[in-house]
Amino acid sequence: MKEKNLKIRYRKLKDEVLLNKKGIVDKGTYFEASRERAFLDMLYLYPEYYFDNLRSIDWDKCEELVLVYKKKALITSLKEYKKIYA
Length: 86
Hints:
Elements: H1 15-18, E1 24-26, E2 31-33, H2 35-45, H3 59-65, H4 72-85
Antiparallel strand pairs: 1-2
């Protein structure tokens, strides 16, 4: 069955972010982003994204990881989220 109205959106992280292993967990046969790394990736790629529940985020880990992105706007956004949810 072919999907006629299929739309694919492709977003790419900068290589220096994508290849940085901070916040990435080696599961043996695959790698998995930590909760904090996944949160920051989404915030980096989609600054207006709505998050339902941020209670399980470790804000100290986020503050360490955010430096990987080298983006002042992301640091500012993280500080705003931390004020609200920490």
